[in-house]
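Example 3.2
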Amino acid sequence: MKFGLIGHPIEHSLSPALFKAGYKGSYPYELIQSSDFEEAYSIFLKEYDGINVTAPFKEMALRKADIVSEECQMIGATNLLIKTPYGVKAYNSDYLGVRHWLEETAQGTDSRPRVLIVGMGGAGKAAAAAAKSCGFETILMNRTQYDSEILPLSDFCHEFRKADIIIYNLPVKIPQIDQLSEEDLSAENRKTILEANYRHPEFKIQHPNITYVDGREWLLLQAVTGYELFTGTTPDCEAMKAVIKSK
């Protein structure tokens, strides 16, 4: 079997190193270098059994799929395509990974968690769908294109105070983060923050009442989930963790 990654740019992706570590090099995993989606997809059909898909190809890739998983239907995007006897099937391991994290994080809590999703790009949509599918109260927030369901960033401090879990998907730091008060960060308002951006995190708060989770944990969870779908076997998670920690 042979696997790869499409998207643009992908030169600095950790996926090849993670896949190699997870399976000790048993399967080839390559970067399919093309900024043109149709060209990249054609190469996948000719040469590969499965591919990961990253920006800006996630929505285009979904439209190519013959079979669409339930999570992809909810999100409207895919980050993983696999050839099957019945055609190409689309999955979203961003959703599957963050849903697993949310379920683990909520274990042992008596109340229904309130989850604030900041940023409604691909990762944000996956996180929102996962939180809703867990039955958690879910608040959506975005820099643009807000409506009756998606709140503007001007509401950030107010919604942060009420949330139990914050999933931050924006690539930049918003001014409202520096406006958080001691009351927002009080012991009565303990929070868990997951930041999607693992390369250049912007929301890393050091505070005794904040549990900050680096985006590398989400990266690991989605990689493990996706690689299991590719191969049908579980990769070496500890070896993959070592790769992530080294970066």
